[in-house]
Write a structure and sequence with these properties.
The termini are far apart. With 293 residues, this protein is mainly alpha-helical. Bound molecules: fe (ii) ion (2 copies). The site of one fe (ii) ion (FE2) has 5 residues, from loops.
């Protein structure tokens, strides 16, 4: 393949982007045992660093999102070196910036698929980049209304929490004891939990982008899965694992009588005071004129 490509570079360039072809070749060489895992990873990073950052279409997405994804999947998550940490940080920031610059292009669906795969393979590096920051950055880049909604829910939840801690501190006794938090810790907890509540929408972002018509029942069925998806994504990472129940329960009524997911009960959880506040605050910060999700 390499020989064919080298001998007819000009002709094949009409059909394939050189970067795309280079990726196929390096992948094939690794699969055939001709190069080591390290050489494969280094080759991917070389391609990534030399990509044309102005290319925002399908092929740009291929090099800006697929190549780093392949690199992340190669890493041994238990033994990440300092150099790899730096590369990962760049990849994550570049991913957000790429999504932001290409939001209005025709290749959005293609990009979302890779972007979600990067989130799925995300490696958290405490102190450098957290899953929470990455998800919030992606929401801001792909769907600003959800980002604004997220920030509003976070701020209103923290504000109400502050007042309730003053006037009804006993409401927080169970949470305080279960998580060993002081008042400042509870405020921090409320902010992060509220900000993370809709992370699962990143998995169904093309459905929530429907404007100008009512959503179909089948689409609403998909949307109703976002609390469970949030919980599944968040449970994988240190920065978000503590807020899983808030994400999962944020569409349940305070007495579990209505809302979704049907089988999930919030009434006996120590976090229920925060869950109820977040649920309540959705009404103040609905991002969509059709439905609060
Ligand atoms: Fe939601
Ligand atoms: Fe929400």
């Amino acid at each position: 393949m390499h020989a064919l490509w080298s001998a007819n570079r000009e002709r094949f360039s009409e059909m394939f982007d050189p970067g795309e072809m280079e990726l196929c070749i390096i992948r094939a060489r690794y699969s055939a045992g001709l190069i080591s895992k390290k050489e494969y990873a280094d080759g991917l990073i070389d391609m990534y660093k030399t990509r044309d950052k102005e290319k925002l279409g399908l092929r740009g997405a291929y090099l800006a999102l697929n190549v780093p994804l392949e690199y992340i999947l190669l890493l041994d998550t238990q033994h990440i070196t300092e150099a790899q940490c730096g590369i990962l940080k760049d990849i994550y920031h570049n991913t957000i910036s790429f999504l932001q610059r290409t939001r209005d292009t025709g290749s959005l669906c293609f990009q979302l698929e890779y972007a979600f795969a990067i989130l799925d393979a995300f490696i958290e590096i405490p102190g450098l980049i957290s899953f929470e920051d990455m998800c919030i950055g992606c929401l801001a880049a792909i769907h600003p209304p959800t980002y604004v909604h997220t920030m509003m829910v976070g701020q209103i939840t923290r504000c109400l929490c502050k007042h309730l801690l003053l006037y009804k501190p006993e409401l927080f006794d169970e949470l305080r004891n279960a998580l060993n938090l002081d008042d400042e810790g509870i405020l921090e907890y409320a902010w992060h939990a509220a900000v993370c509540h809709d992370i699962g929408k990143l998995a169904i972002i093309d459905t929530i982008m429907i404007y100008g018509r009512k959503i179909l029942d089948s689409e609403f069925t998909l949307i109703k899965q976002h609390p469970d998806v949030s919980a599944a994504m968040m449970s994988q990472h240190r920065s978000t694992a503590g807020y899983v129940n808030v994400a999962r329960g944020h569409h349940k009524w305070y007495d579990d009588s209505r809302g979704y997911p049907e089988e999930f009960s919030t009434s006996s959880l120590p976090e229920r005071v925060i869950i109820n506040l977040v649920t309540c605050n959705l009404c103040f910060s609905g991002w969509h004129n059709l439905v609060f999700i």
